[in-house]
Automatic annotation (TrEMBL):
<dbReference type="GO" id="GO:0008757">
    <property type="term" value="F:S-adenosylmethionine-dependent methyltransferase activity"/>
</dbReference>
<keyword id="KW-0489">Methyltransferase</keyword>
<protein>
    <submittedName>
        <fullName>SAM-dependent methyltransferase</fullName>
    </submittedName>
</protein>
<keyword id="KW-0949">S-adenosyl-L-methionine</keyword>
<keyword id="KW-0808">Transferase</keyword>
<feature type="domain" description="Methyltransferase type 11">
    <location>
        <begin position="80"/>
        <end position="189"/>
    </location>
</feature>
<dbReference type="Pfam" id="PF08241">
    <property type="entry name" value="Methyltransf_11"/>
</dbReference>
<dbReference type="InterPro" id="IPR029063">
    <property type="entry name" value="SAM-dependent_MTases_sf"/>
</dbReference>
<dbReference type="InterPro" id="IPR013216">
    <property type="entry name" value="Methyltransf_11"/>
</dbReference>
<dbReference type="InterPro" id="IPR023576">
    <property type="entry name" value="UbiE/COQ5_MeTrFase_CS"/>
</dbReference>
<dbReference type="GO" id="GO:0032259">
    <property type="term" value="P:methylation"/>
</dbReference>
<keyword id="KW-0472">Membrane</keyword>
<keyword id="KW-0812">Transmembrane</keyword>
<feature type="transmembrane region" description="Helical">
    <location>
        <begin position="12"/>
        <end position="30"/>
    </location>
</feature>
<keyword id="KW-1133">Transmembrane helix</keyword>
<feature type="transmembrane region" description="Helical">
    <location>
        <begin position="36"/>
        <end position="59"/>
    </location>
</feature>
Length: 238
């Protein structure tokens, strides 16, 4: 339960659908005289739900642990976590920052996007973890970031930008990332597969370079490989 409270559940409606369909198949299996097909269907849906649950509770954390080993951090790091939620990525970066480095997390704290999501909860965790010097959070919309141009040299985001609807809002968010990022600054985005392809095209138009999209394997499957989590890395050219 502590893991769920600290990380929240992403896409809880999808989790409910998968487990719900699995449980629904069980009484149908009984009513149809224990027809094997319905038992198999129940098992498949429950397995897909379990894969989904693994990704939201454990898999995404493993993804970021691996990614951050390749992200250099120093006392000059000024990082921004877009849609920080419970602070999974922000805490991982804050714990790795040398003295002088800092990360800011922003979110609008929608329960629909992640359960038990609130600024006060993250601030309490920062205080308990003694990371209030390394990290701060505030309420802000990623489509209108309240920061001056070229404030940050690293921007990260985990499974957040795809929640912005419609597409124009997501493109506006990427433009804002480009605005607040310093020349030579890096972007690391982890998001749904179809979203990362969209981001790649948008960042190319915005003048980013060294854009790479890669997979994350089963740790990023939202039920199965047909709904993967991908990673996009890019550098702001100018």
């Amino acid at each position: 339960m502590k893991t769920i409270r600290e990380n929240g559940l992403d896409g809880v409606s999808g989790l409910i659908i998968l487990y719900g369909l699995g449980l629904l198949c069980l009484p149908v299996w009984v009513l149809t005289g224990f027809h094997l097909a319905w038992l198999i269907a129940a098992g498949i849906y429950l397995i897909l739900g379990s894969i989904f649950l693994h990704t939201t509770l454990v898999g995404k954390a493993h993804i970021w642990d691996r990614l951050l080993r390749g992200v250099p951090l120093d006392k000059h790091t000024r990082a921004l976590d877009i849609g920080c939620g419970h602070g999974l990525v922000m805490f991982k970066i804050a714990q790795r920052l040398p003295l002088g480095g800092h990360i800011t997390g922003i979110d609008i704290w929608r329960q629909l996007d992640q359960t038990n999501n609130s600024q006060s909860a993250v601030e309490r965790r920062l205080a308990v973890s003694e990371l209030t010097q390394e990290a701060t959070v505030q309420t802000a919309d990623m489509r209108q970031l309240p920061f001056a141009d070229q404030t940050f040299n690293l921007v990260v985001s985990s499974l957040a930008i795809h929640n912005v609807k419609p597409k124009a809002g997501r493109l506006q968010s990427l433009q804002e990332i480009g605005r607040v990022l310093q020349p030579g600054g890096r972007v690391v985005l982890v998001d749904l597969g179809f979203s990362c392809q969209e981001y790649k095209e948008a960042l190319q138009r915005l003048g980013f370079t060294d854009i790479h999209v890669s997979g994350n394997g089963p740790n990023g499957w939202w039920g199965g490989p047909w709904m993967p989590t991908l990673t996009l890395r890019a550098t702001k050219l100018n």
